[in-house]
Amino acid sequence: MSRPAVAVDYDHDGICQAEFRKAMSNFPTGVAVLTAAENGTRYGMTVNSLTSVSLTPSLLLVCPKKGSSTGEALKRTGRFAVNILSADQEDLCKRFAGEHAPRFEGLEEVEERDALPLLPNSLVHLICEVHAVHPAGDHDIVVGRVTQGQVAAGDPLLFHQGSLTHHRRESA
Ligand SMILES: Cc1cc2nc3c(=O)[nH]c(=O)nc-3n(C[C@H](O)[C@H](O)[C@H](O)COP(=O)(O)O)c2cc1C
């Protein structure tokens, strides 16, 4: 059965960001918080541009907007951590995407590994070294080499069509 569809010419200056964002919002993703640290200052931002790239070596990519404080800090220091959020961490997603500053204020139980902040109760923690940075429009593609990781059991927080959601699997 064919679905009703709207054709849009994206290769045209007149097409607004909102249309492209709307198209891509149909690709559901998980949600993570990137963290970095520099001279005792902690940085963190919510991202959904996280993708695995290579198995040997273990590489992933994230796309921070050019000029974002966390993205610039991780480029300067060459190191960052990825905290993949669990279904019950919507509050952290919003905290690290919003105006709340400083973002770590009032957060308890933030651990550190190699001086990088790790958010408590996240599904996955990955410690990365910056492998490469590729400028891409108004964002950077940051490729990270994963040096350490930790994985917990649970369901992930999801982002789909502009909303946070989750899908609880039936337990086996
Ligand atoms: C679900 C979700 C996913 C996001 N993904 C990204 C992303 O991949 N790249 C990006 O630059 N901003 C992303 N943002 C927006 C940033 O989290 C937001 O702009 C943040 O304030 C940037 O932090 P900083 O500039 O203070 O470091 C996302 C926001 C949300 C809610």
UniProtKB/TrEMBL annotation:
Keyword Transcription assigned: no
Listed Pfam families: Flavin_Reduct
Top-level taxonomic group: Bacteria
Gene Ontology MF, one: FMN binding
Keyword presence, Oxidoreductase: yes
Domain Flavin reductase like stretches: 24-166
Name of the molecule in the record: NADH-FMN oxidoreductase RutF, flavin reductase (DIM6/NTAB) family
Keywords tagged on the record: Oxidoreductase
